[in-house]
Structures are given as structure tokens and as C-alpha cells.
Write a structure and sequence with these properties.
Distance between the termini of chain A: 63 Å
Largest sheet of chain B: 4 strands, antiparallel
Number of helices of chain A: 19
Strand content of chain A: under 5%
Helix content of chain A: 55-70%
Radius of gyration of chain A: 24 Å
Largest interface: A-B, 39 and 23 residues
Number of helices of chain B: 2
Radius of gyration of chain B: 18 Å
Structural class of chain A: mainly alpha
Strand order of the largest sheet of chain A: 1-2
Oligomer: heterodimer
Chain lengths: ~375, ~140
């Protein structure tokens, strides 16, 4: 049984059912039933048209479930009116599914869960495992999300920016266990980019590819973080970088800059440098200036301060940092790094310890603690 | 999408507003308190925010390696001030604000006289895996 094929067909089958007028939650149930049936029947009797087979079985399941429920008579009328014969292009249906799963009425975690389930075709157990919550919890999160968007019709195409944010959230989650969420996010963003022609969609795809290309070099075998400057650039995936750069250049040529394109441009400049010393920090600062205009985000300004520190020296970086509130996440870590570059090792070590106490994850905490220990060892010799 | 630990203390937290020891409540008040906690957990299961919840016995023991043949066990390093964890709940919520809201709600469980205890709960974020993107 080709699980990848089933997963890739799931969203368009679901999209077709919803397009035909099926309520989202009921359509999702019907598609799950059809998938189970496929797993049972296909090994002995493979269909010539897998998608057509799934649509037919799922639609029959949906009608059965709808007819069985007298209270849903009215919806059945709607379904009859909508008709079920016209073949619809899978691309459009899947696209609309993306918008539905990123509906503004959903919280970010619900939108992510629903996207992974409906568009990604992952099982509830797989999603629960990736997010380290009980399966029952994830099942509730998904079914609430389904109920929330059940009344929503496809007339409203929604906001592509929200869809991109949901996919970026999935990407940022990294991975745990059998599901690699970063790879899953790339797969879904590729699918989205194939069905919608927007520079920002291409920008997000390029950004993901460029970050993903460096993934193997970001951690040591023991799981500890390796800073960008210390990474073994020979382990960067040059094919992914080339693809990301090409997609980005095509997007930038459209002259409709957005934050994902700008972020991808920064990632591309890092990827382009053969050694950390060759990094074009001046151009990176310029892209951060663009990003600041686009987003007004204090986190972007913080990143910009690091780039300024590299381009114009640590004092300039500290001056840029001084304009930002020190409650910002990673503010202390950046201050520690810039003081270290400036040669003030005592201050740097103290700030690294402080930053470690505020670190949002284990790998970062250990990295910062090690930095402090390294400076303290160096100073005592 | 962040996990938080809600810690409930037997001892060690600042005194609650409605500060009457549980053994001086009526049995009905105790039942109402327990029911409130159960309802709270059930509701979070329904919203997809519940991860885990466990109660702990009050008697804790400190253990350390002391080499062969030495007593490795004490009742705590600071007998006068040590805090005692009564139990925990782990939640997985969209924001820190939501975590605060839920902790506040759990703190309002009814106690003596059927009035909310307003006990102090400790709220601690979990450290997690690093995200894919950091630089």
C-alpha cells in the first residue's frame, strides 16, 4: 500500500466533497472511511484511477451518513442542488482546503492541527506524537477545529498570508518521532506553490528550502547546537540551496516584495558564503532594513542588531541593540555575543548566564551555558 | 502551542486568601472542590489543551549518593522552609495569556464555605526542542 500516494490524494478528495456541498466535518469523516477502505481493498484489487475511486467511495459514505440522519435532511437538499457529476480540478479544491484550514476563526494551534490532518493527510496519532500531547487531546483539538469551520463556505477565499503563517508554524516546529514536520511543511508549501501564483508563496518555499539545506549542520551528534559561523558548510545541501535561490530570484523579479522573500534573501546570502568570514553582512543589513519596513517587528530589529554588529563592528551592534527593549526574547543572548566580540569577556560571560536562564529550549540553554563556561575558563587562565 | 506546568503546593506557596486547612472543611465542601478540579480537567480535554495531571503524596524524601555504606536519605535540605508539591497539571495552550487565565481559574476552586480558595499556583513553561529556524 502506497501511503504517500494516499496522503497526496487526501486533500483533493476532501476538497471535491466539500466543493460538492458536503459539510467539512462530515466530509472529513467520509474521506477517512474511504481511506480505510482503500487500505483494505487496494492490495488485492488496485483501482485504475485511485483518486476517482476515493471520491466515489467517500461520496457514497457521505451520502449514507447524511441520509441516515433525518435531522440533516435540509443539508441533503443543499447537496442535491449542488450536484455531484461535474468533475472539478483537484488543484483548486486543495487550494481552498488550505484557506479553510487557516480560517481566521481558528487559533494557531487548531489551524496547524487541521492543516496537517486535512491537507497533509496525517493521522491524529501522528500529529499528537509530533506535538507531544495525548492522542485524545489532539483528537479534540481537531474535531473542535472541524466544527468551527463547518459552517464556512468556500465562497470566501480567505487570506493567503494566514495560510503561509500556518505553514511556517508547522515548519518551525521541527520534528519529533516518525513525523518530520519541517519536511511536511515543505511538501505542503510546494503543493501550494504549484497551485497559486504569488511571489510570497514562492518566497516562503525558498525560505524553507534554504533553512532546510543547513539543517544537518545545525546540531552535533549529541544534539547540541552549532552556531552558524561554526557550522561545517560542506554539509549544507547544495541542491536545496540552488533550488531555493532559483525560486527566490524568480519571485524577487516579480517586484512584489514581502517578508518571506526578504527573509529568504537573508538566508540566501548566508548560504552563498563559502566561509563565515565571506558573509556579505552589509547586504544582509540592507535586507533587514527592508524587513523592518515590511513588518515593524522588534524581533527583526533584534536580528538586525546582530547583522549591524558584523557589518560595522560590535559597538555599532550594541548601539542598535540599545534602542530595543531588553524584555525581547534573546535580547540578552545578543548582548552577550556582541560584548564578547567587543572583548569584554566578563560582561559577556555574565550575560550568557543570564540569557541561559531565559532560553526557550534546552539546546539553546545548554549552548549559552557552554558559551559562559568557555569565557570563564578562558579568563581564569 | 506551548506547554506549561501548573504546580499546586501543599506547603511553600504564599498563603491562599480563603486559607482554611482542608481537614476543617465539610465533606461536601471537599467533594465540591474535587469535582471542580475534575470538571476543569475534563473541560481542557474537550478544548484540546489537556496534557497530563497527577497528584503527589506529601511525604517526599531527599536522596543523594554518599558513597558506600552511608545514609543517603533525609527529609529535606531545609526542614523549616521546604515546599511540598501536591500535584501538577500540564497544559498545552496557544499563549502565555491563556496559561495565566487557566491557572487563575484553577486557583478559584471552591474551599471552606464554598468560597474560592484563591490559592497560589506556580506556572512554569516547559523547555522544548529548538525550532527549525533560529538565526
Amino acid at each position: 500500500m502506497d501511503e504517500a500516494l494516499l496522503r497526496s490524494l487526501t486533500p483533493s478528495v476532501l476538497g471535491i466533497l466539500v466543493r460538492r456541498g458536503a459539510d467539512f466535518a462530515a466530509a472529513e469523516d467520509a474521506v477517512q472511511d474511504a481511506l480505510i477502505e482503500a487500505v483494505r481493498v487496494w492490495p488485492d484489487d488496485p483501482p485504475r484511477d485511485p483518486k476517482g475511486w476515493l471520491v466515489t467511495v467517500a461520496w457514497r459514505r457521505f451520502l449514507d451518513a447524511t441520509r441516515a440522519d433525518a435531522a440533516r435532511r435540509r443539508r441533503e437538499d443543499v447537496v442535491d442542488e449542488a450536484g455531484s457529476d461535474a468533475p472539478v480540478s483537484g488543484v483548486d479544491d486543495t487550494l481552498q482546503l488550505y484557506f479553510l484550514c487557516a480560517h481566521p476563526s481558528l487559533t494557531p494551534s487548531s489551524a496547524v492541527a487541521l492543516t496537517l490532518r486535512a491537507v497533509g493527510g496525517l493521522t491524529t496519532r501522528q500529529i499528537a506524537q509530533a506535538y507531544l500531547v495525548p492522542e485524545a487531546t489532539m483528537a479534540q483539538r481537531i474535531s473542535r477545529a472541524k466544527r468551527t469551520v463547518s459552517g464556512v463556505r468556500f465562497a470566501q477565499p480567505g487570506d493567503v498570508a494566514t495560510v503561509l503563517r500556518v505553514l511556517y508554524l508547522v515548519f518551525n516546529e521541527g520534528y519529533s518521532g516518525e513525523i518530520d514536520l519541517a519536511a511536511e511543511a515543505i511538501r505542503l508549501t510546494r503543493q501550494l506553490a504549484a497551485s497559486i501564483d504569488r511571489p510570497e508563496v514562492a518566497g516562503l518555499l525558498a525560505l524553507m528550502l534554504l533553512h532546510h539545506a543547513r539543517r544537518a549542520s545545525r546540531t552535533a551528534p549529541d544534539g547540541s547546537l552549532i552556531a552558524l559561523a561554526e557550522q561545517d558548510r560542506g554539509r549544507w545541501d547544495t541542491a536545496l540551496i540552488a533550488e531555493g535561490v532559483e525560486i527566490l530570484q524568480a519571485a524577487l523579479a516579480r517586484d512584489r516584495l514581502g517578508e518571506f522573500q526578504a527573509q529568504a534573501a537573508i538566508a540566501a546570502l548566508h548560504a552563498d558564503a563559502l566561509t563565515a568570514e565571506e558573509t556579505d553582512w552589509v547586504q544582509i543589513v540592507e535586507w533587514y532594513d527592508e524587513l523592518v519596513c515590511l513588518t515593524e517587528s522588534p524581533v527583526v530589529r533584534l536580528n538586525r542588531a546582530v547583522a549591524v554588529g558584523e557589518a560595522d563592528g560590535p559597538r555599532a551592534g550594541l548601539a542598535a541593540l540599545a534602542e530595543l527593549h531588553d524584555s525581547l526574547p534573546r535580547h540578552t543572548a545578543v548582548a552577550a555575543y556582541l560584548h564578547e566580540r567587543d572583548g569584554d569577556l566578563a560582561t559577556a560571560a555574565r550575560l550568557y548566564v543570564e540569557a541561559a536562564g531565559k532560553a526557550p529550549n534546552l539546546a539553546e540553554r545548554d549552548y549559552l551555558t557552554r558559551q559562559a563556561a568557555q569565557l570563564n575558563t578562558r579568563r581564569s587562565h | 502551542m506551548a506547554k506549561y506546568l501548573l504546580l499546586k503546593h501543599y506547603r511553600g506557596a504564599p498563603a491562599s486568601v480563603n486559607n482554611v486547612p482542608m481537614d476543617q472543611w465539610t465533606p461536601d465542601e471537599i467533594s465540591a472542590h474535587m469535582q471542580y478540579m475534575r470538571d476543569f480537567a475534563t473541560r481542557l480535554e474537550g478544548t484540546g489543551e489537556f496534557v497530563d495531571s497527577q497528584a503527589l503524596a506529601p511525604g517526599g524524601t531527599f536522596v543523594r549518593s554518599d558513597g558506600e555504606g552511608r545514609p543517603p536519605v533525609t527529609d529535606g535540605p531545609f526542614a523549616e522552609t521546604k515546599d511540598v508539591i501536591a500535584g501538577w497539571m500540564v497544559i498545552d495552550v496557544d499563549s502565555y495569556e491563556r496559561a495565566l487565565e487557566l491557572a487563575g481559574e484553577l486557583s478559584a476552586a471552591p474551599g471552606a464555605g464554598g468560597k474560592p480558595i484563591h490559592e497560589w499556583l506556580e506556572l512554569r513553561p516547559f523547555l522544548t526542542e529548538p525550532p527549525t529556524v533560529t538565526e
